[in-house]
Amino acid sequence: MGNFTMDTGATPLLQVRDASCRAASSSTDDSEASIFRGIDLDVHAGQILDLVGPSGSGKSSLLTCIARLNPRANAHLTLDGVDANDMSVEQWRTRVAYLPQKSLLPGSTVKEAIVLPYTFASMHGAQRPDDQQIRDALDAVGLADVELTRDPHDLSGGQAARVSMIRSILMFPKVLLADEVDAGLDDTNAWLVGVYMADFAHRHGMALIRVRHRAPDGLADAIATLAEGRLTVEPVESSHAADASQPHDTAEPQTAQSEQAERNAQ
Ligand SMILES: Nc1ncnc2c1ncn2[C@@H]1O[C@H](COP(=O)(O)OP(=O)(O)OP(=O)(O)O)[C@@H](O)[C@H]1O
């Protein structure tokens, strides 16, 4: 049994109870091994949790479980006190966004790839980001040289990962599950990405769970380790998370973005 609760006194934004996941098995008997079970997790609005652990320990599986994307996993999930079962899977995934390790950027331009989610029914009524908002976001994460008209298939892995992150974050999720978004980046760009996501989390009350293999960057409020099916947590006493906006010189969020955040929050 692993438990992780960031005890701030407030109601958690995301509650995970009794999460379990089994490994795939080709056998038809009951020999499917458990990757983890009995994991509880509470994360509050604006908090940043780093999820670490050995390769294969189940970090991605836990994130996809929380995103309701993992058929091998089960959990009782609530968001803002609303049971996941009272939302469609699409509604849940719009609010609890999973950013996969491998980026998938359909469309013929970077802009098309970023605004694509706005064609989804679950985003109906949401105002899509304009060119300037996309430009500002690209600039903030070290992609000043990437034009909005660039074919996304021509991007490097690290560039594509950042574009994919921007696409997820500009949908204003309440929870962002970022699976090794900084894995292929140099230290400077990894820091820019960390600061951009942390800044967004603080400004908009987004909870951020990051799977990372890099050294701690000081932005997390806590570091949770998943190993041998158990989750343990160490709060970070003096995280720089609250100062994340200091080295980050992006413009204030646009009014349209703030309005959209409110709409998505409903
Ligand atoms: N789609 C899948 N079908 C079957 N088994 C899977 C699937 N995805 C992952 N697994 C298995 O689940 C276990 C946990 O994998 P997972 O990717 O969650 O670990 P991880 O901690 O994220 O690893 P890494 O740090 O290497 O990315 C592994 O044994 C893996 O082989």
TrEMBL record:
<dbReference type="InterPro" id="IPR027417">
    <property type="entry name" value="P-loop_NTPase"/>
</dbReference>
<keyword id="KW-0067">ATP-binding</keyword>
<dbReference type="InterPro" id="IPR015854">
    <property type="entry name" value="ABC_transpr_LolD-like"/>
</dbReference>
<dbReference type="InterPro" id="IPR017871">
    <property type="entry name" value="ABC_transporter-like_CS"/>
</dbReference>
<keyword id="KW-0547">Nucleotide-binding</keyword>
<protein>
    <submittedName>
        <fullName>ABC transporter ATP-binding protein</fullName>
    </submittedName>
</protein>
<dbReference type="InterPro" id="IPR003439">
    <property type="entry name" value="ABC_transporter-like_ATP-bd"/>
</dbReference>
<dbReference type="GO" id="GO:0016887">
    <property type="term" value="F:ATP hydrolysis activity"/>
</dbReference>
<dbReference type="Pfam" id="PF00005">
    <property type="entry name" value="ABC_tran"/>
</dbReference>
<dbReference type="InterPro" id="IPR003593">
    <property type="entry name" value="AAA+_ATPase"/>
</dbReference>
<feature type="domain" description="ABC transporter">
    <location>
        <begin position="14"/>
        <end position="260"/>
    </location>
</feature>
<dbReference type="GO" id="GO:0022857">
    <property type="term" value="F:transmembrane transporter activity"/>
</dbReference>
<feature type="region of interest" description="Disordered">
    <location>
        <begin position="234"/>
        <end position="266"/>
    </location>
</feature>
<dbReference type="GO" id="GO:0005886">
    <property type="term" value="C:plasma membrane"/>
</dbReference>
<dbReference type="GO" id="GO:0005524">
    <property type="term" value="F:ATP binding"/>
</dbReference>
